[in-house]
Amino acid sequence: MTILRLALSRRGGNVASAVVAGAGLLASAGFVILAGCSVGPAYHRPQVPTPSQWRTPVTPAQALWPDADWWHRFGSATLDRYVGEALASGDDVAAAIARVREADAQARIAGAPLFPAVAASGEALRERQFSPGGQPVTYNEYTPTLTASYELDFWGKNRATHQAAVLAALASRFDRQTVVLSVIAGVAQDYFEALENHDLLQVAQTNLATAQHVLDGLQLEEEVGTATALDVAQQASVVAAENAAIPPLVQQLHQSLDALATLLGVTPESLALPDAGLATLTAPPVIGGLPSILLERRPDVAEAEANLHAANANITVARAAYFPDVDLTASGGFASSMLSNLITPAARVFELTGTITQNIFQGGALRGQVQYSEARYTELLADYHKAVISALSNVEDALIAVQQSSEQQRRQQDAADKAQQAFDFAQQQMTAGTTNILTVLNTETTLLTAQNELVQVKYQHLEALVQLYQALGGGWQQSQERL
Fold first, then answer.
1. Given 165, 203, 222, 284, which is the most exposed site by the fewest CB atoms within 10 A?
2. In a shared domain, residues 130 and 229
3. Which 3 state secondary structure label does DSSP give 332?
4. pLDDT for 190-230, tens place per residue?
5. Burial of residue 36, with CB atoms counted within 10 A of its CB: 0-12 exposed, 13-18 middle, 19 or more buried
6. Which structural domain, as residue segments, surrounds residue 136?
7. Do 352 and 385 belong to one domain?
C-alpha cells in the first residue's frame, strides 16, 4: 500500500473562512464524482422468453389477475378473520417486516460515505515543566476543533456500495410480500384442511351409525332365523373397522388446527373446532393473466432480480478496490493557552489535507474479491432464470390442477350419488329377502369409499385454487413497492 499525503497548515487567519473553504472544497468534490468513471459493468435485465398463452385454457377468455384480497372470494368470514390475524400478529410476517427495517438501516449506513463526515472535538491540556535551578512553569492548552472529511468517489465504489444496499432493501420488500402471500395461502390451506377433516369425520360417524343400524337389523333377523351368525359377524367386522377409523381423523383435525394456530401466532387452544365443512365455501372461477406480465406480478421473481442487480453493483465495488482512494480533510478551530484568548484571531488555526492511498500487494485478495463477485453474479443469474421458469411452471401446474380437480369433483359426486342409490336398493332388497348380506356389505364399502374420496377431491380443488392465486402473485404488482 502506498500513501501520498499533501497538507497545508496555517495558524491565525479566519477560521470560519477556512472551514467554509474546506467545506466548499469537499462539496465541489461531488461534482468531480459525477464526472468520475465507473469501473463495473452496466446492468441489463436478463431476457427469459415467456409463452404468449398458457397451455391450459383459461376461463373466462379475457386474461384477469387476482384481487389483492383474493381470499374473500371463498365466501368465508372465518377465513377472512384468520387471514387478518395472521397478517397482524403472525411471526413469519413480523420477521419479514423486521428484515425490511434491517435492510433499510444497512442502506443508510452504506450511503453515508457519499456525504462529507463532520466531527467536533475539544481538548484541554495542563502541563508543568521543570528546569534545573529555575521555577516550574505551568502551561495550559485549549483546542476546540471542527473537522470535515470526504472520500472522492472517482471509480464509483461508494455509489455502487450504496446502490447494492438499496437494491438489497428493495429485495427485502419483495421477500416480505412473498412471505405475506405464503402466509395467506398457508392459512387458507390449513383452514380448508381442517374443514376437510371435519367432513371426513362426519362421513365416518354417519357410516358408523348406518353400519350399526344394519348390524342391529341382522341381529334381530338372526334371532328369528332369517340371518346367520356369519352374516352378523361380517357386519360386526364392518362396524369395528369404521369405528377404528375415527381416532385418526380426530387426530388429523386437531393437527390441522395446530398448524393454523402457528401461522396465526396464537396458541392451539385458542382455536375452536370447526362446526361446518367444505360445503360452506364458495369455489371462485378460474382466472389467469397473460404469461408475459407474470414477471411483474411475482414478488419472488422481483426479489431474484433485485439480488442479481445488487450483485452486479458489487462487481463495481470489487473492481474499484484496484484503484487509489482519494480523501480530503478540512479542519479548523482554536488553540490558546488561556481561555480568555481562545476566540481571538491569533488563536485560530486550520488545516487542509489530501491523501491518496494505492494498494500495491495484498496476496491476491483483490483479484479474489473480483472473482468472487463475478461468480456470485453468475450464481444469482441462474437463480433468476430458475425463478422465472418456476413461476411459469407454478401457474401451469395450478391451472391444470384446478381444471382437472373440478372435473374429478363432478365425476366423484356422480359416483357418490350412484353408490348411495345402490346401498339404499341393497338394504331394501335384503329387508325383502331378495338379496344377501354380501351385497349389502359390498355396496356399503363402495359408498364409504366414494364419500371419503368426494370430500378429499373437494379439498384438492379448493387447494388448487389457492395455489393458482398464489402462483399468479396474489394481486401484487411490482409498481406498488417503494423505498
1. 222
2. no
3. strand
4. 999 999 999 999 999 988 998 898 888 889 888 888 788 99
5. middle
6. 1-35+116-152+325-358
7. no
